[in-house]
Design brief:
Layout lengths: L6 H10 L5 E7 H5 L3 H6 L9 E6 L3 H14 L4 E6 L4 H4 L11 H14 L4 E8 L5 H10 L4 E8 L11 H9 L3 E5 L5 H7 L5 E3 L2 H5 L3 H5 L6 H18 L2 H15 L6 H10 L3 H8 L5
Parallel strand pairs: 1-2, 2-3, 3-4, 4-5, 5-6, 6-7
The structure holds flavin mononucleotide.
Length: 292
């Protein structure tokens, strides 16, 4: 997740454990080709226990292929995830992210070239479609090109977050798909996860993991209490200080706060105090006060 699953957040989750796979923020394939400093900074890694994939976005096969070769040779990431779901204007207008869902042939050409040029595991993240559902066609194309897993976020590009993710598609897809099938959208608790795992092979959790980084441990059956939650928040603050440049720390904390408020009592007041804070230290003191 852009500006969320950076090195500090992934390290936090790696320390908590109980996770099968983690994915980086989405990274521009072109940026990797240009060895752009900010892009390389986003690709920093650490000695991890949980496999870490890099997610790439782009619109043409060649930059993807070069980026994948670079990742295979120069980094310790364990695999590649291709973003075909991002709805952000600045991404879509460049023909990347969810825009690709409109063009199954282009998808085929991109995946074919990447597949030919790397031995790393290759997964793809898609949505149900751009403005109409074509997920079945896209899945056929991806399976044909030999991807290792497909994540479906059960919304269209044009859907908003206030519309529920359309999990009715999960069982329809599961009937036809042969590749590992990962479901995504609106998993906020261990109970949600248990319910949704009936329809898919695995789950991808986004905002729910920011709201509660212990969600994976809970799904694995651990009992979580408020003390443990407080320790996690304190550790996240430490990791932000360790990995993030001082000028970006406050913005980072505000980005986490946006999702931390979910499922919390009295969280709106805390959010306002964090948004009004002038320093990372001030915001951090409020941040530590969130209670699960
Ligand atoms: C702030 C933010 C950043 C995101 N960045 C990415 C991204 O870089 N790559 C991606 O595949 N999805 C991204 N997403 C989408 C999430 O991965 C996920 O598909 C979506 O939020 C629905 O799942 P959830 O309900 O578990 O959050 C982002 C979502 C948010 C809210």
């Amino acid at each position: 997740m852009a500006s969320i699953t950076d090195i500090s957040f992934r390290k936090l989750l790696d320390e908590i454990g109980s996770i099968g796979l983690m994915v980086s923020e989405m990274i521009s394939a072109e940026g990797v080709n240009r060895l752009n400093k900010r892009t390389l900074d986003m690709m920093r890694s650490f000695e991890f226990n949980t496999p870490q994939f890099i997610q790439l976005f782009g619109s043409e096969p060649e930059p993807f292929v070069n980026a994948v070769k670079y990742i295979e040779e120069e980094t310790n990431f364990s695999g590649i995830d291709i973003n075909m779901g991002c709805p952000a204007n600045k991404v879509v207008k460049r023909g990347a992210g969810a825009f690709l869902l409109k063009d199954p042939e282009k998808i085929a050409s991109i995946i074919r070239e990447i597949r030919k040029n790397t031995k790393l595991p290759l997964t793809v993240k898609i949505r149900l479609g751009y403005s109409k559902v074509n997920v079945f066609e896209i899945i056929d194309v991806l399976e044909n090109e030999g991807v290792d897993a497909i994540t479906v976020h059960f919304r269209l590009k044009s859907s908003r977050y206030n519309e529920k993710a359309n999990w009715e598609y999960a069982s329809l897809i599961k009937e036809r798909i042969e590749t590992v099938f990962i479901g995504n959208g609106d998993i906020w608790s261990a109970l949600d996860a248990k319910e949704k795992l009936k329809f898919v092979d695995a789950l991808m959790i986004g905002r729910g993991a920011v709201s509660n980084p212990l969600i994976f441990a809970e799904i694995a059956g651990e009992k979580i209490d408020s003390l443990r939650f407080k320790q996690v928040l304190e550790r996240l603050l430490e990791l932000i200080e360790e990995y993030c440049n001082p000028e970006f720390r406050l913005a980072k904390l505000k980005a986490y706060t946006r999702f931390m408020v979910y499922n919390k009592i009295n969280s709106k007041k805390l959010r306002q105090s964090i948004y009004n804070s002038k320093s990372f230290k001030e915001a951090g003191n409020y941040f530590k006060s969130f209670v699960l």
